[in-house]
Amino acid sequence: MIDEQQIRKIVESVVESVTAPSGGITESVVPADIPPAPTTPTFAITPSAGIRGDNGVFDRMEDAIAAAKRAFIDFKKFSIRDRERLIGILRMVLKDHAEEFSRMVYEETGMGDYKDKILKHKNCAKNTPGTDYLVSRSWSGEKGVCLEEFAPYGVIGAITPSTHPTPTMINNMIIMLAGGNTVVFNAHPGAKKITAYGLQVCHRAVVAGGFPENLFTCVKNPTIETANTLFNHPDVPLLSITGGPGVVKAAMSTHKKVIAAGPGNPPVLVDETADLDKAAEDIIKGAAFDNNILCIAEKEVFVVESVFDKFMMAMERAGAVKLDEINFKLLAEKAFISNEKGGHILNRELVGRSATHLADLVKVNVPEGTRLLFAETDKDNIFVREEQMMPILPVVRVKDFNEGVKFSYEAERGYGHTALIHSRDMNRITEFARVMNTSIVVSNGYSTQGDGPDDGEAYMAFTIATPTGEGITSPRNFCRVRRLAVAGSLRFV
Ligand code: NAD
């Protein structure tokens, strides 16, 4: 067995030989307090990743799939203990590269908050579940013995979002490889450099640790076409989709087994029994984290009339900045662009930008370090209805708890994703959870407390399978359950 020290040495030595890609966006969006990238600014992937690939990165999707298929056969020779050692290497890479990957994600996508990204990477390294989630079951009785075990599917096709490219990719690697699968990634084109770079760093580390090449692969230039090749390839029996409604719909129309982690629009209900100061602090903490690009993050708030004004004051005391009606409307015009069909589409340029940036756009002066804007509005406002992924929170007055539940349900749009409530009434919390019917309900806390032990309880995942119902995914979801029935034998008492 290799111990932790040895794994660390291997990881450090291979990682020294990999260089980072240069940033994809202009320096002006990188805050001054972010330290410079520790590596030289040249992209390591060779001009042609070719048929053999370059540390898991391929030019063609067909070659990436073929390589992962070969690797799946080789991987069968490795024991579950070996898989756990491999996962240890991935955890180490992610932990040691949390700052570097975070900076690169920030530079390439322009979204979110650098320091929050470091926390996301470290949380993922520590708290993604491994092979311990694959405990087999057995039964014995007068008719014999029965054993159920978790078996791999084979090559999994995974789509990752632009909002958390490296944490989702490495979280997926851990939970899929734990079950003995291999995986081919098709990243968001807007995060392709960091995805390929992060995959290469992991690849070098696991190969140096004695594992086969191409246990995880990706294409250098992911597109809708490469995604479609992955979706329809006969050697890919299972798809794992993390993204918005378009990609979930596209994957589900393939008639393959799909584990789909779709969009969310999490409502928060605050009733008159709630601790308003704590509710305001929690809501700011959740909604401001990584500039609100998390699918589980608080996106709109419904507050019972009798405590509405007090709640708004509590939000200001806790550091959020209130926009007046005119500025809120101005911001909506910038955040949602009219289309030719008379509707609106989200302005992707503003997704994940900071609260101070949004305030600048509407020429509102806010104190330095402001993390969240908020404003009073009605339930039909576009910021309430759409998943905006910006640190601006619409707050709606409701008559009473029942109206709050009704509006929360409508705002969630049937995504079945996440909902939050602040109340001291246990019956109301239960009723809210029952009606919302979401994969995650958080009461009296902030959204990240619903996904993993750094903030809350249980394990965490970056793929929260809402439309297909697996919820916060674990290695079990990426395994087939196989049964061996031994009739009339092996029972010895
Ligand atoms: P996106 O939908 O724009 O892209 C997600 C991925 O799908 C990307 O890799 C993209 O290239 C691909 N894609 C998009 N349309 C496609 C199509 N028609 N065919 C094939 N591939 C396609 O989303 P994003 O902006 O990258 O990520 C944010 C979205 O993802 C939000 O809606 C968020 O709620 C959701 N999300 C959900 C979870 C979850 O666990 N449920 C986690 C993270 C993000």
What are the salient characteristics of this protein?
alpha/beta; binds nicotinamide-adenine-dinucleotide; 18% strand; seven-stranded parallel sheet; 16 helices; globular; six-stranded parallel sheet; 493 residues
- Provide a count of the helices: 16
Tell the overall outline: globular
* Secondary structure: helix percent: 25-40%
How does the helix and strand content classify structurally? alpha/beta
- Mean pLDDT, nearest integer? 92
Report the portion of residues in β strands: 15-25%
Low-confidence stretches: 22-30, 37-43
Attached small molecules: nicotinamide-adenine-dinucleotide
DSSP strand tally = 20
Radius of gyration: 24 Å
Strand order within the widest beta sheet: 11-14-15-10-9-16-17
Major sheet description: 7 strands, parallel
Terminal Cα span: 37 Å
Can you offer a commentary on this structure?
The protein is α/β, with parallel strands linked by helices. It has 16 helices and 20 strands. The strands form 5 sheets. Strands 11-14-15-10-9-16-17 form a 7-stranded parallel sheet, with helices on both faces. It has a 6-stranded parallel sheet with strand order 1-6-5-4-7-8, with helices on both faces. A hairpin with a 5-residue loop joins β18 and β19 (471-472). It is globular and about 70 Å long.
How are the secondary structure elements laid out?
Elements: H1 4-16, E1 57-58, H2 61-75, H3 80-96, H4 98-109, H5 114-127, E2 137-141, E3 144-152, E4 155-159, H6 165-178, E5 182-186, H7 192-208, E6 216-219, H8 224-232, E7 238-242, H9 245-252, E8 257-261, E9 267-270, H10 276-288, E10 300-304, H11 305-317, E11 321-322, H12 325-335, E12 336-338, E13 344-346, H13 355-361, E14 373-377, H14 382-385, E15 392-398, H15 401-412, E16 418-422, H16 426-436, E17 440-443, E18 464-465, E19 471-472, E20 479-487
Bound molecules: nicotinamide-adenine-dinucleotide (NAD).
